[in-house]
Amino acid sequence: MATAPARAKPRAGDVRQPRLGPLGWGRWVWRNLTSMRTALFLLLLLAVAAVPGSVFPQRNIDAGKVTRYLAAHRGSGPWMDRLGFFDVYASPWFSAIYLLLFISLIGCILPRTRVHLRALTSRPPKPPRRLDRLPAHTHIVTAVSAEQALGAARQALRGRPGRLGKSRGRFRVHGHDPATLSAESGYLRETGNLAFHIGLCLVIVGVAIGHLWSWRADVIVPEGSGFSTALGSLDTFSAGPLVNPADLPSFNLNVTKMNVTFEDKVGGSQFGKPRKFLADTTVDTGTGRPHPAQIAVNSPLRIGDAEVFLLGNGYAPVLTVRDAKGAVVYQDATPFLPQDGNYLSTGVVKVTTAAPQELGLDGLFLPTADQNFTRGPTSLFPGLRNPVLVASVWTGNLFPGNAPQSVYTLDTSQMKRLTKPGGAPLLIRLAPGQTVQLPDGRGSISFDRTVRWAGLSVRHTPGKTLTLLAALAAAAGLITSLLVKRRRVFIRVTPDPSAGDKPGAVVTIGALAKGTDPTLTAVVHELADHIARLTSQAPPDRRPR
Amino acid sequence: MNSLTSDLSLGGHATNIGLATTSNNFLYASAVVLLLAMLAFAADLAGHPGRAERAAARREDATEQAAAAGGDGGGTALLERTAAPAAEVPPEKRQWAGIGMSLSWLGALLLGACVVLRAVSVGRPPLGNMYEFSIVGSFFVITAYLIWSLRRDVRSLGIFVVGPTLLTEMLAALVFYTAASQLMPSLKNYWLTIHVTVAILSVAFFTIAFSTTILYFVQKWREDIGDTKYKFMDAVPDSATMDRTTYGLLIIAFPLWTFTLIAGAIWAQIAWGHYWSWDPKEVWTLVIWVVYAAYLHARATAGWSGKKAAYISIAGFVCVLFNFTVVNMFIVGMHSYSGM
What we know:
The complex is a heterodimer of chains A (545) and B (340). With 545 residues, chain A is of the alpha+beta class. Chain A has ten helices and 23 strands. In chain A, strands 4, 6, 10, 11, 12, 19 and 20 form a seven-stranded antiparallel β-sheet that branches. In chain A, strands 2-3-21-22-1-23 form a six-stranded antiparallel β-sheet, with helices on one face. In chain A, strands 13, 14, 15, 16, 17 and 18 form a six-stranded antiparallel β-sheet that branches. The longest helix of chain A is centred in the N-terminal third of the chain and has 30 residues. Chain A is elongated. The N terminus and C terminus of chain A are likely disordered. Chain B is mainly α and 340 residues long. Helix content of chain B is 70%, strand content 0%. Chain B contains eleven helices and no strands. In chain B, helix 1 packs antiparallel against helix 6 and helix 7 runs antiparallel to helix 10. Chains A and B meet through helix 2, helix 3, strand 8, strand 11 and helix 9 of A and helix 8 and helix 9 of B.
């Protein structure tokens, strides 16, 4: 408003903002959410929000570590837990960011697809009035008529791409009037860009499918035993919300031998590092005739929809517990869980049939024990060189209140630790083949031998093929969009006023590109040279400016 | 942290310790040669102030000589005087830059020998731990620069590329060193070669792009304050060129990083049973990807090019460094292969 009078103070009534109805607000939110600036902000926010998950322990990776962290940080821990710092990738704030990003992505794809489809089916636009105002331009003077010059220009535009033009593609050419040509190339740039963004959306869809329909079962199997998917002999089973457990494939798998080797030739930090994990198994898929199969790290076994992965290994000491009369009350391989790189392992043996009271062992297994225990019970090497079992012995009630408990921990709240005659706590120490007599006529414990166990994971992850193909499509689209240049070239032919009676025409070429294109000027000059060659044999009289 | 030779005395079944030691010596040799290359490049930069004046002076000399030679010819001499100029005078011979380039080639060859011998000594691609990652990475950086130098005159950038290469070599020898040995089972897969090679290659491009971004800031600052004090930096192209160069490097690095992510996910599916488990290294790989994606978006959005975009690319490289050092050495995850 040019004639606005000088005002003293704006009163409340003076400021008249346009009122936004619900539709207006909706449009405003949509516009802002789908703007490039918001997308950029959300991208950076996603990067920042992902970081805590790599710094703090996460429940989905190591729940035990989270428990230990909470125990060590009694003040801040519970608050961080409430804010989702131990489940970052399932927390509301992280989900909010990627969902907003997802919406922003769709809001970017939809209109751009519409615009691009329209561009693909329409002609290049009319040339601007002043071609010399375009970022790249030149003109040449030819000694042919205007019609001939225009024909040559058309031929040059339609000709094979030249040396520089490898990434320029073919021009789509149209003449809006008899004196001009409009040309456009590089539509693939936008196609690739859209493929990239649509690919990213499909990756998220694939991940969502995996979340909803995937399942996994983990099981620890000592050599010589097995598990069945049908009998529910799995240690843990977790499934997405839409999985029907009845649809699981049914098979039996037995581990016959677990082959493991460790580095013992090279010293330093590599000494004791694992070198080979390979499980020899037999699989029975219900035919009644088990067939042999091998599972190794990096080489899962496929059974129907499911894949069986070898993800862990360890030792299971075989113990025999006898009562006072010498009758066997317990004989089994009990898996112990490795705690460090040298397989110092912890485990628990629960003997419910022991008499006169239930018996529990809380033990350490050392595959290569330090002979003198100079630094307490430690293992010096992960291989079986000097296996030793150390355990404290407890009697009493193993399952107080019959509450469910882990097989790897002993609830000693209603148990008493056995003591030596002097009153000191009893600690048994056994090598394979050794037997120890328990005090007070409670029988004996024998350490027969050691077997290995295989940690197997049975998994089914649908949507992973979609995710992979979408990711590859996105990558291909990305490369296309970065390499192909979208260019518009306009050519105008005017009669050469200085030619007099002789035929003569001035050909003006102007070009512009989408984004950065350092070769645009070179492309224009290449076209000019081509037109000059087509119109005469003489070298072109090119004037760059 | 191990000294270079003490661990090697035990011998190994598939590991040739003699070759590994020779490989280490090649690394030392390469570091010494590249140090000399750096000094040569520095001498070249130091000689830059006054190069324009010297060229002008020589042009004058040449023109005078031409005038003297064509003096008898009368009218034609005048013509020559106007037509003869700059093209006739060859550009100043930058001897120090030439020495720097030759030494860089030699250093790269020595480093290549170090990588090859390491590979032969362990009978596998040398991609199993941080030390091997570092030597291959610095080899890629210097090679990419040398290939670039065949197409463009990038001698002025030499010190800014050879410097980081040398630094990486020294870190590899002194901090990251890991005795030559075999791989743990989870790494024994052909995806190791694909995933890690592409990762190293993209890190090499990220590194060079980081150097050019820093140069962008320096040149931008000099242009903004009209600097005349650090004239030797005139040898380096202006900020707009550095900005374009950074973009050119990052549009190579970003797709490579995308493939690192994809190849890593494929391998994780085979080795760990799931293609994505939010392992710290996976998280940081994604963070880096997201930051550089933001850079590309910033470039495409008006008002975010130049300095703002350059800040994002710096942030991206900080993440790359964090991913390679802190995540490898201090954060426990399934990618704990640093060998340290």
